[in-house]
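To: structure desk
From: M.T.
Subject: fold request, one chain
Message: Could you run this one when you get a chance? Sequence is below, nothing fancy, just the single chain.
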Amino acid sequence: MFTGIVAAVGRITRVHAGADSVRIDIDPGTLLLEDAVIGDSIAINGVCLTLVARSAGLCAFDVSQETITCTSGLQQVGAAVNLEKALRLADRLGGHLVTGHIDGIGTVSALQAEAAHARMRIRVPAELARLVARKGSIAVNGVSLTVNDVADDEFGVNLIPHTLAMTNLQHLSVGSSVNLEVDMIARYVERLLEHAEK
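Reply: Done. Structure tokens follow.
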């Protein structure tokens, strides 16, 4: 479980293709890993991955074919990636509860810089559109954001200067793909409603 508060931006340094998975090496940048052990969960661009190796300032993660199919940005050498270690029970919940299980891939449809902040619109897959609510929470590349408005299959968010400075959202442009995780409460409500209608 995560909070959507990015701790550092790392960089993918190498991608090793396997038969049915990929191993990625990441330079964790300023992420503090003194307490990290093999087997720990770390969110990479919002995707919960397991730390499988550490050496010489690099971290390695295995990515299954299923995860590769359902996500974006995990196979691009040189790409900046948002990093967050798993939430501990004593930690502050500054964002919202984020599982690290990506619901779909969105596309940046508009991006407008305004002074030090930016407004961004994201087009979501049709099956996710009904799960995005105005003033609700959504994780974009692992960043906890508040939805400002919703229109059909798009939603809008504001990116404050701190978010732009501390995450890889600053590198997005119109047409960029992003990993989306809708609020888990919306997922459960949808499931309950499906059973109630039967």
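Reply (cont.): The mean pLDDT is 93. Let me know if you need anything else for the meeting.
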